[in-house]
Amino acid sequence: MKKQLLYLLAIGLVVIIGCQKELSFEGDSTPAEGSLQSDINGDCLPKSVNGVYVAAKPLAADTNTISVSVNVVKTGSYVISSDTVNGYFFRATGIFTTPGVNTVTLRGNGTPFAAGVNNFVITFDSTVCDIQVTVLPAGAGGPATFTLVNGGTPPNCASAVVNGTYTKDVALTAANTVDVTVNVTAIGTYNISATGGGMTFTGTGAFITLGNQTVTLTGSGTPTTTGANTVTFADPFASCNFTVNVTGPCEGTLGGGPGACTPSIVSGIYVVGSSLSGPGNNVQIQVSITTAGAYNISTNTVAGITFSGTGTIGVGPNQNINLVASGTPTASGTQTFTVTFGTSTCTFTVNVLPNDYFPRTTNSNWSYEWDNDPTDSLYRFAISATNATAFGTFNIFMENDGTAPPAGDSSGYYRRSGGDYFEYFDLSAIGLDNPQWVEYTFLKDNVAAGNSWTSTGWTNALGGTPFTFRFKDSIEQKDVAVPQTTSLGTVNYQNVIVVVERIQLQVGPAWVDASSVFGYAKYYYARGIGLIRIELFDPPGTSPTPSFVQRLRRHQVF
Prior knowledge:
Blueprint: E1 6-9, E2 13-16, E3 33-36, E4 48-50, E5 65-74, E6 76-82, E7 88-96, E8 100-110, E9 116-124, E10 127-135, E11 145-148, E12 161-163, E13 177-186, E14 188-196, E15 199-207, E16 211-221, E17 227-233, E18 241-246, E19 251-254, E20 265-267, E21 282-291, E22 293-299, E23 305-313, E24 316-327, E25 333-341, E26 344-352, E27 365-370, E28 373-388, E29 393-400, E30 409-417, E31 420-426, E32 437-444, E33 452-454, E34 458-462, E35 465-486, E36 489-507, E37 510-513, H1 515-518, E38 520-526, E39 530-537, E40 548-556
Antiparallel strand pairs: 1-2, 3-5, 4-5, 5-8, 6-7, 6-9, 7-8, 9-10, 11-13, 12-13, 13-16, 14-15, 14-17, 15-16, 17-18, 19-21, 20-21, 21-24, 22-23, 22-25, 23-24, 25-26, 27-28, 27-40, 28-29, 29-30, 30-31, 31-32, 33-35, 34-35, 35-36, 36-37, 36-38, 38-39, 39-40
């Protein structure tokens, strides 16, 4: 049977609720949008704390600072701040003029009350990350006194634990660290470094307690020599060193080269403006190895994205390796990447989605099923034609639920402006007496969860009886993960905005919430994918579960 997703209003009033997509405000006068960069533990990146922090000593804004990285999706003004802990806080304001990863320095304010390790929560847009600051006891602030705890006899006299994989000609990453144990006899600041084989390991901070403690030194540089590399501490520990084993390169060929990589399995979701910071975005390819050793395989950079992988591998044919994506996509569509390994090459493709919550790009299409019935479904697609109106130019969606002609019938008109999404429709087409084309905002991607807005009030009539109504929409959740099960299986959608929509009637000068009579609706929008779910609820007190559910089971976005 043919279904329409309708909202009952007054005595049979119905409004079709449709699909939406995202865009940003432009210009420096509007708030910027983006996300703080953090590691797997939620700690801010980079973990940069500057200056010495001493109890009862006021912070100096120019020297007591912290640095954080922000992936800017929409340029504009920003405020990045921490909570107040132990009597002080950090804050930065300014204007982002360039999208992508930006480093921001937050200045310290206030006076620490007591010594200790303070954990701050940094906030920007709707994202957070953590950073730790060590405060020395009152009166301290000079260099600490400490020695390396022996792990043997000179020159291997440091109890060093080397972490990570080291490959010749491959730059070190955050995973390349060395843990050393020190014995602190006087509290204060420290600066430990060690260098060798093209690599440098450093650690700075402050000791606030005495005795044995572990310090993590972060690696940088690029190994230049295979085999056992001697890394020597700087003064006053120049008599001590430790060994880092560096692996030489392997030799072999790519599967499928010089044509398409065979096989290649692309994982993850790629969205314009969304930083690729986790292992979930990767491609699996095959290599045949003739000489065992370390590999450093990467692609070219396309639309802001690069895939790369390092590790060690033994001799053998058709071995799977993963190349992890990095960067921030800058363009949507099908992107072709070239993998290079030794003298062999091969290619694979990645579909990059537009940075909006319901794409309107031509030929993009979505299939839905109703109430868990795989035979009761709806197919929607966007066409190239547009509809120019007094409100603006709208993209045209078509649909086919099995009863419409093969070409489909109209499924609505949609546009976006800044962070607002609009639908355009005729009130007479939904059963009211008078033709009246209107538009309303059914999604805002530039406000936090908890915010709400209302449409213009519309006056029309039904059966000759005039009345005025409007929509009230609110964001219940923003950029959350939502699992969804259909006849095709379960999909975990990321970056989902949940919008609750209610109807209000004008009674005298007041607007009255009519959901107690007509119920309400929830709409779920996944960034880069579109509308993934609609739930219609009967009036409160009738049933806590939706009376109708439409779920996305397949999509293709261009």
